[in-house]
Amino acid sequence: MIIKNGTILSPGTQEAYSADLRITNGLIAGIASPGSLSPDSDEEEVLDATSCVIAPGLIDVHVHFRDPGFTWKEDLHTGARAAAAGGFTTVICMANTKPPVDHPDTLSDLLLRAQKEAIRIRFTAAVTKGLAGKELTDFETLAGLGACGFTDDGIPLINEKLTEQAMRRAKALGLPLSFHEEDPAFIEKAGTNRTAPAVAEDVLVARDCMLSRYTGAVINIQHISSGASVALVRTAKALGAPVFAEATPHHFSLTEEAVEKFGTCAKMNPPLRTEADRQAIIEGLKDGTIDIIATDHAPHSTAEKQKEDFFAAPSGIIGLETSLGLGITNLVKPGHLTLMQLLEKMTVNPARLYRINTQAMPGMGSEASLYGSILPGRVADLVIFNPDEAFTAGNYQSKSENSPFTGMELHGKIHYTICAGQIAWDSSKHTDRPCA
């Protein structure tokens, strides 16, 4: 395969230049000046990337594919299709399925079925058995099978001593812990800033940042929503705690006012908060306090989201197919981040957290990430998109449609997603929503 006339953005090496690129046997075989590469045979496919960026395939460290147990909302196949349509070549699935990923049999089944999909699907395991917050799972066995980290996402860990023990176990394995930070003691009803105030997040973020500093465990503060929590993470990092933080596109794009306009499609945990919180998240993205942009892709059926009682409807929105567009539209176009910085938070930093192809590279230090760099010999995981081309959000590949961004004009149309040298998404061939 040849990709011609594109602009390569390689956040791992901080390089940007125009080039042609050849892929052979799933690897980047060569990079040459634009227009210089020609097919070696009539069978070699040629993609025209004129006006487009060629970037490393995106990584989402926080998705829910609802498999097993809730596959009317999403499953591994439809989730993978949605991810590919959004430019993602690797996703990390959360463990709060039914049954949860707390047993070797469940994890083994998922890993086996995931091999059939066009992108890379990796899985976290639960921190506690049954997500009950009482007894730790068998970290060592689950890690040995291929769990890439541990989380009870959707449910906070309340027991401080158990949390410390989990951190020590994860640290010994060299794997991260990801935390959903909402203390139920402060929550009247989930889903709105009024009934689930920021203090519920802040108290657990403060606790876990200090426990991370105490134990040395790498942790990830998931879907940060509070300005105070951003400040807490900033302080923890200054104190040397190995803390990562992620922000979702909905938390840097919307405020609590969106609930009045979009109803349950703007209901999520943690909730949308104030404009001051949104600006603090953007500032955290700008100064590096927030390392990662992650979607928290959370599919729900239309019937579930259309319940008359707002608080009876489940929280969460889909996000894989709008993430890059929202980042370009709401962060890059206004000048908050450069496109290179946005891609760093969607490729290099997620790879650092989950140690995806991470190794030392000459001249780049011991923490340099193999992933996120477009260089000869690297696996050809790529996304090709036009950052200036507008598209209308919708026509989703996901089984679900629960998004407040449907119908909005965004920038950053994705033309191709390539995983291990194979086309996982071609926008010209997917003009209609597929059957579930």
Features:
globular; 436 residues; 16 strands; alpha/beta
If you had to describe this structure to a student in words, what would you say it looks like?
The chain contains 13 helices and 16 strands. The protein is α/β, with parallel strands linked by helices and 436 residues long. Strands 1, 2, 3, 4, 5, 14, 15 and 16 form an 8-stranded mixed sheet that branches. Strands 9-10-11-12-13 form a 5-stranded parallel sheet. A 3-stranded parallel sheet has the order 6-7-8. Strand 15 and strand 16 (422-426) form a beta hairpin. The chain is globular, with a radius of gyration of 21 Å. The protein starts with a strand and ends in a 10-residue tail after the last strand. Residues 364-368 and 432-436 have low confidence and may be disordered.
Task: Give a brief description.
This protein has 436 residues and is α/β, with parallel strands linked by helices. The chain has helices at residues 76-85, 104-114, 139-145, 160-173, 199-215, 227-238, 249-253, 258-262, 275-287, 302-305, 323-332, 339-346, 348-353; strands at 2-10, 15-24, 27-32, 46-48, 53-56, 58-63, 88-93, 120-123, 150-151, 177-179, 219-221, 243-247, 292-293, 382-392, 409-419, 422-426. The chain is built from 13 helices and 16 strands.
